[in-house]
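User: Predict structure, ligand S-adenosyl-L-homocysteine.
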Amino acid sequence: MIKMNFENLIEKEIDEKRQGEALKITNNGDSPKKMYLESYGCQMNFSDSEIVASILTKEGFSTTSNIEEADLVFVNTCSIREKAEQTVRNRLKVYNTIKKKQNPGMIVGVLGCMAERLKEKFLEEEQLVDIVVGPDAYRDLPNLIKQVDDGRKAVNVILSKEETYAEINPVRLGGNGVTAFVSITRGCDNMCTFCVVPFTRGRERSRNPESIVAECKQLVADGYKEVTLLGQNVDSYLWFGGGPKKAFKSLSKKEQKESVNFAQLMEMVAKVSPELRIRFSTSNPQDMTNDVLHVMAKYENICNYIHLPVQSGNNRVLEMMNRGYTREEYLDRIESIKNIMPDCAISMDMISGFCTETDDEHKDTLDLMKKVKFDFGYMFKYSERPNTPAQKKWEDDVSEELKQKRLAEVIDLQMQHSLNRNEATIGKEYEILIEGESKKSKDKLFGRTKQNKVVVVDKANHKFGDYVNVLIEDCTAATLIGKAI
Ligand code: SAH
Ligand code: F3S
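Assistant: Predicted complex:
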């Protein structure tokens, strides 16, 4: 059972699939056109799909969760690993069958990172596809749809240095009405050598803080209780009036004075309402300052949980990955977190079997894990991505078998640590925010602690969005079992 949970976690990104749900919107026309949206990949993709839904809702489209009645079918895609792309290809086969048998008129659009990576080639490789749109071109969707209505295929994969969709109010899709994503930066300038994101999502840019605060205020007004601020590298958030990322040092005196960094932004969001919990993802060890940690410690409503991807515990591998920190610097960050917030939970991402990784270097990874004892982890086999620096420079020379073996060791160790960390919560009290029904029992609800641990409790009279104090009585490596107190 526990093992299964973990397998789920590893593939969380690509298995997490949400579909647009029917929206209660008023339409001027008699029978509005319906769109069906499916998202794969990171949280940013889910957030982007909500922006797409917003843009098309304004055009008179309504959303449906029934693909067979959809006029427009969009799949928001992920390129991070080969398997993620394969999942999308398999879905396209299913769409093809539906189009042939049940819904001949449907238009199929591909959004997101695969669209950006493959561009026009997508149209050649997948005959079914009518529209290919990259992550920065969603405002152009109404025009692209018109092109298809006129009988042409349509492509827009232009990346932008400014686009943040700042003022677009996302249509919340398939959510629980309690937690929401709010994007704060787009793109990534880090150029980790294994990663396709800088090529599919373009240059890093920060969103106007006023629009972020306004979105959070609206969410509070709509009854939401938690926001997750999203970016590939949230710690490098820096607002100085817009445009591609610049270093603080290179700003003019005036820009410096008026600029807003991540610690300041968090403070602004924390002040929106004490009832609104704040989370963020993803932190990058090279950019996370102690200022951020102090703001986290200062505000009760900022959750004490940090996702801090490490990728490897060996300095030579980290250098090849271009991660911008050493093992020692990473451990130093962990030290600071523990000093400033002793009860902060920490999770990681890890890659097993990167080019030229030796057994000893893999052991360094296990050793780092033993030093930190992460609460939680997302662990992957290295998957070579076309045109990344790693693919251009080095051979993907760790055999599949060895990657699998190393990954299994990393997962086994993480399971032990997760179990130990969870066991340490037994007998303690936590405040959880109720988010939904337990998947295993209709009589139970689940919520999360500030440390991002899932707690299952009896339903009693609790409602989604309630804060409930619980005593932890039992646990597995993935879940805590609690009792309301
Ligand atoms: N921006 C985040 C993560 C982006 S991708 C960061 O700062 O790290 C999410 C995770 O996918 C990464 O942390 C990494 O562990 C994994 N990943 C990225 N590219 C990969 C590849 N080519 N093969 C295997 N895993 C990869
Ligand atoms: Fe990828 Fe590294 Fe950016 S993992 S998203 S290039 S921080």
